[in-house]
UniProtKB/TrEMBL annotation:
Annotated transmembrane regions: 20-44
An example Gene Ontology CC term for this record: bacterial-type flagellum basal body
Name listed for the protein in its UniProt record: Flagellar protein FliL
UniProt key word Cell inner membrane: yes
Membrane topology value: Single-pass membrane protein
Keyword Glycoprotein in annotation: no
UniProt record similarity statement: Belongs to the FliL family.
Length: 188
């Protein structure tokens, strides 16, 4: 009988060693998975996330710089240190455009624009194809009767200025195109 009692204890000892070994292996596997997951997360992190943060920071810096520039211009105007306006031809040759209406009529005009500063001039140059198209369309929509009077010329100049400023996305009246001047104006 004593032998029978000794056998169950002998069997229990190897089982408990197996259980301890099994728990140790499972714990080690779980630890390796956790460490591997953490490494994968940090090492395989998308570089686009970093670029997005940089892009947002750059955009904010650009917006701040523009805001400071506008404030600087405003202060200069208040102090009376306003720079001389900049004049520029819309295109080298005069606009020659068929006018709307029953009769065949043509308007030929050379257009100079007065801009608030050199920055606006460069902005206008960058948008020149779009601006020229808009001005051509605007002039073509006019009739001979509308363009041959002084009031008609003034209205056309105002509409051209408004259209160009709209294309340039100008917010204030003292920015962008300040005036439109016809240096040649011929209709037939």
């Amino acid at each position: 009988m004593s032998e029978a009692k000794a056998d169950p204890k002998a069997d229990a000892a190897p089982k408990s060693k197996k259980n301890i070994l099994l728990f140790a292996i499972i714990g080690l596997v779980v630890l390796v998975l956790i460490v591997g997951g953490a490494l994968a997360f940090f090492l395989l992190k998308s570089p686009a996330e970093g670029n997005a943060d940089e892009a947002v920071a750059e955009a904010n810096a650009h917006a701040d710089a523009e805001k400071k520039e506008k404030e600087k211009k405003k202060k200069e105007k208040e102090k009376g240190e306003h720079k001389a306006p900049v004049f520029d031809k819309l295109q080298d040759q005069p606009f020659t455009v068929n006018l709307a209406g029953e009769t065949e009529s043509v308007l030929q005009a050379e257009i100079m624009v007065e801009l608030s500063d050199e920055h606006e001039k460069e902005k206008l140059k960058g948008l020149q194809p779009k601006v020229l198209d808009a001005v051509n369309r605007l002039i073509r929509s006019k009739t001979l009767e509308e363009v041959k009077t002084t009031k008609g010329q003034e209205d056309l100049a105002r509409e051209i200025r408004e259209k160009i400023n709209e294309i340039m996305e100008v917010e204030a009246k003292d920015e962008g195109v300040l005036s439109v001047n016809f240096t040649k104006y011929f209709y037939q």
